[in-house]
Amino acid sequence: MSSAPSILDGELLRAFAAFARHLNFTRAAREVGLSQPAFFERVRRLSDALEMPLYEREGSTLRLTEQGRRVAAFSREELARGEGFLEELRGQQGQSEVTLAAGEGSYLFWLGPAIARFVAGGGRVRPLTLGAAATCEAVLSGEAQLGVAVVDLVPRGLESCEVLPTRLFAVMTARHRLARRRTVKLSDLAEETLILPPEGRPHRDFVGRSVARGGARLRPPIEADGWPLMLQFAALGLGVAVVNGVCKLPPKVVARPIPELGLVSYRLLQRRGASLAPEAARLAELIRALSPPRVHADPARTSR
After folding, report:
1. Does residue 261 surpass a pLDDT of 70?
2. Predicted pLDDT of residue 74
3. Hey, which of 89, 131, 273, 275 has its CA 20 to 30 A from 256?
4. What is the mean pLDDT of residues 34-39?
5. Who contacts 37 (Cβ-Cβ below 8 Å, separation ≥6)?
6. Of 75, 110, 127, the domain-final residue
């Protein structure tokens, strides 16, 4: 691969990063200020230099190959690192934008202090609000430098560290029969109308499998998309919500731990082998430093 060094050509990397973002030659060419033929030639040169296909057609649409996804991630990281170096050279540290992917609950209930401290120190954050699977994909592709998600099995190509282990709680009104208990059993949940995410979500599947292991079938649950709506439905007395301990409780509800469900862990994710730009590394350190070692170790919680 004698021409391989041309992969370090910044113009080729910038073109491919734009192509990976749009998967459309016309829109990507417009972003980087080239004619479509000139833009297509840059993507072709990069593919030729690597001697591998970076994208393929599926009907009328384009998608990246596995190699293309890796090159896209590399391109984004190299461009971000180059911009960070130039800022440092010019004494303009803190100007680079860090893209962080995480779920709604993470942003609402515990990432706030780290992000606020980062912004107060001159940092810039572009938040992506995504589920766990989409967060992993965003970090793998290089769209996000960092991700935060509850992940049981870390996908190949990512590395992670645990930043927040938390209990799982049953949340209900203070008048509910389970509110008198210190803890809740899975067999108790089988008798209740549960409030859970829509079908196909990992949390919904996990709770369903756990209840089924005790030989009980889960009643058809009330579906709510996101922790805040689940908690609101519980406060209205519609059922029992099963949520992570990071959640801030609304008024007039109580939360009881479900020991049989164990702990779940929020993990800080980055692409394996990636060298984080200084600003991304600073945000990652703040997330680690400002995350409590365990959320809500008390066996019972009551809103105020």
Report:
1. yes
2. 82
3. 131
4. 90
5. none
6. 75
